[in-house]
Amino acid sequence: MRQIKCDVVVVGAGPAGSMTAKWAAKNGVDVVLIEKRQEIGSPVRCGEGISKAWLDEVGIEVDPKWIARDVRGAKFVSPTGFTYFIDEKNAGNEVGWVVDRVFFDKALAKDAAKAGAKILLKTAATGLIWKDGKVAGVKAISNGEEIEILADAVVGADGYESQIGRWAGIDTSLKPNDILTCYQYRLTNIKYDSDYCEFVLGSAAPGGYVWVFPKTDDTANVGLGVLTTLIKNPGDPKMYLDKFIAETPGLKDGQPLECVAGAVSVCAPLDSVCIDHVILVGDAARQIDPITGGGISNSCIAGMFAGKALAKAKETGDYTMNTFQEYEANWRDRLENKLWRNWMAKEKLVTLDDATLDSLVKTISEVGVKKLSVRNLLAVVKEKHPDLVKEFEDLI
């Protein structure tokens, strides 16, 4: 059996994996980045919206090739149709782009390659290699050939269904009320306000929301996420989305160019995302925003911290929790309070009826938000509806 030797093997070439590989490789780590698909970034399983605020922090240079739409802002639509607009005046660089994930993900992988990472496509991990009770790499099938990749550390960046975490014994299990089931069309021949990303709240998407993210003047990603505990049948997400489209004048004549279904974790932060010689990052580490279900920025930020910790591990020769605690500390310091707050807010929001959600959107509109963030939105809610945030007001 063919063997490959390296310092670190990263499983999964999405944003989390590529960012981890980049920051490790640029600091002298010998990295192999494997991706089970034949093309990085495809198929797209994402609404493709990002803000601009975090790109400089993780060293991503903006490339027009991966920007599909530079939007003016966002609009939040209540169950009865009341709309609150947010633009750059009160959102700044939290307003962002709708990107093309095929080009975006390839750009991140290209950065990893330029830093020195080696990329293997059509290479699927099939198990961990254990030696003397410690993880020592991964078994994989690469283009039909069984191989072993021997490494001092394994990074699980293999998404929602992460096998690396399960094989390593890290508890990433989810409760049904911490899973959104999603369905999305790329819809064309539509007429709508293509300058704004739209979020529709309420019973149109039980426990979640509908999104319309513009790609061009007449094409958008139109999808929704629904809480798993609030649906009865596997086909319900598609049913809810089809109903919404059919009842929305600007969308009802639209035609699908593609569709995609999947699940998203909307849980509280995990107690641990590492063991000796293993690190989880991004979706695999449940670092997804529980309110929005968005994970690109968190994945990239956590990937940067993971890559730096792996570089320190190589420098010291210690790939155990002694070194990986730095990664745990850094990503939690940057993200954990926000994830906890947004999870607790999500737990409350899914219990609200349409009338209450209408009142919340109107309240936010009347009071206004100086700068867009979930925290600032919740602060407005706290002022007018303190009972709704009483359980987590200390996090606002």
From TrEMBL:
Gene3D superfamilies: D-Amino Acid Oxidase, subunit A, domain 2, FAD/NAD(P)-binding domain. It comes from the Archaea. PANTHER family: DIGERANYLGERANYLGLYCEROPHOSPHOLIPID REDUCTASE (PTHR42685:SF18), GERANYLGERANYL DIPHOSPHATE REDUCTASE (PTHR42685). It is an enzyme of class 1 (oxidoreductase). Binds 1 FAD per subunit. Reduction reaction proceeds via syn addition of hydrogen for double bonds. This is Digeranylgeranylglycerophospholipid reductase. It catalyses: CDP-2,3-bis-O-(geranylgeranyl)-sn-glycerol + 8 AH2 = CDP-2,3-bis-O-(phytanyl)-sn-glycerol + 8 A; a 2,3-bis-O-phytanyl-sn-glycerol 1-phospholipid + 8 A = a 2,3-bis-O-(geranylgeranyl)-sn-glycerol 1-phospholipid + 8 AH2; 2,3-bis-O-(phytanyl)-sn-glycerol 1-phosphate + 8 NADP(+) = 2,3-bis-O-(geranylgeranyl)-sn-glycerol 1-phosphate + 8 NADPH + 8 H(+); archaetidylserine + 8 AH2 = 2,3-bis-O-phytanyl-sn-glycero-3-phospho-L-serine + 8 A. It comes from Methanomassiliicoccus intestinalis (strain Issoire-Mx1). Residues 178-264 form the Digeranylgeranylglycerophospholipid reductase catalytic domain. One of its GO terms (biological process) is membrane lipid biosynthetic process. Residues 5-173 form the FAD-binding domain. FAD binds at A16, E35, C46, G47, G49, R101, A125, D283, G295, I296.
